[in-house]
Structures are given as structure tokens and as C-alpha cells.
Amino acid sequence: MKKKFLLGGLLGIVLIGSIIYAADHIDAPAVTGPGSTSPGNDITDIYAFQSPADNSKMVFVLNTQGLLSPAATGAASFPANVMYEFNIDNTGDNIEDLVIQCLVQNGKMRVYGPVAVGTPGLTSTVKTSGPSTEVAVTGYGAGSPSTASNGNGTRIFAGPRDDPFFFDLGRFKQIIAGTAASFNNPGTDSFAGTNVMSIVVEVPKSLLGAAASINVWGETKSK
To answer: For the chain, which residues score pLDDT lower than 70?
Structure first.
């Protein structure tokens, strides 16, 4: 079954061997819900890095719905009408060559890819002909995370996690206002105690092409 999704958000470029990231916690009007809440299509951060446990693999992480309180995290979910997509450029032209597509189907997170992109751009067709992996979304407070693997070595996780982004927002505002000259060491983590909904995909590098480096960005696309 083919489904088309339209672009909802865009974030980040990452190179193998280093991490370049961007943070966007519910400050974009187009993805801010009632009461400044963060809806399911709001990307907070995207990360890509070599697996610390196996240097033959890459790990891709896309976090959404930032600033979830512990009380709100239990009710948070991945909406069924949103596709979360990792775009991978392995030719250096900043156009996606491969995609990893993640969406909820039948109450589980299903991940397709890495697979060659159909038509690059603002709309996507779910690549159901490619390899797929399915995992139950881990619930908040679960004793251990639910993970799943498939035969090509891809391993996935989906569920709530502590927000990994560190930023001293209070001190930043003081610097902008001219009442402070620099950050404290150590600073105060303004995101401490808040959670995100996270999608983690570990992939063998052999599935990403032969390039020495790749560009990666994330999108959310809605039906």
C-alpha cells in the first residue's frame, strides 16, 4: 500500500565521525500546540553517530515532542498520521539518496529502510518494498526498553527518553540582556527533568553506500 506524506519539519546535517546538531524545542509557531505544548510532528533534535559498541554501524536518533513533564510523558504517543524520516545523502549533493521511514502501524513503530528514495522533495511515498523492522513502543516507566532487529542487521527502538540536549537557558537570556558576560561552568541544564519521544535506528554502514561521509537530515511528514 502506498501512502504519500507532506513535509512538516526539517532539521540538521550530520557527518560521520562528528556530530552537528540543532535544537528546536516548541519555538516554531507551525508546530506549537495548545498551551505551548509540542505536537507529534515537532522535531527537537536529530543525531547521527558511529555506534560506540560496533564501529561497523551507524546510529540515527530523531527526538520529538520536547519538554514533556513526567506527568505528560505517560500519555505521549507517536501519532499515526505522521511519518518520521531520516534522509541520507551519500553523494555530496545535499539531495537524499536513501531514506529511513518510521511510522506507527497497528499500534507499533514500523521502520522501512535504508532504501533508495523514490522522488526526492517535499512529499514521500512509503517504501514498503524495502526492508522493514517493527517494534512495540516502549511505555513510560518500563523496566527495560523494547528493541527489535531484522535480518539485515538493523535494530530499532521507539519510546520516551530523557531529553539529551543540555542548555542553560536562564544564563543565555542574561547574556543576551547584557547582565552576564559568559556562561557558568558548570551551567544549569534547563531541560533537566523533561522528556522527549525518541526513535533510534542502528544500521550497518554497509547499507549506507561506499561514501566516506554522509549528510543526514530529518523530516516529519503528515498525511
So the answer is: 1-39
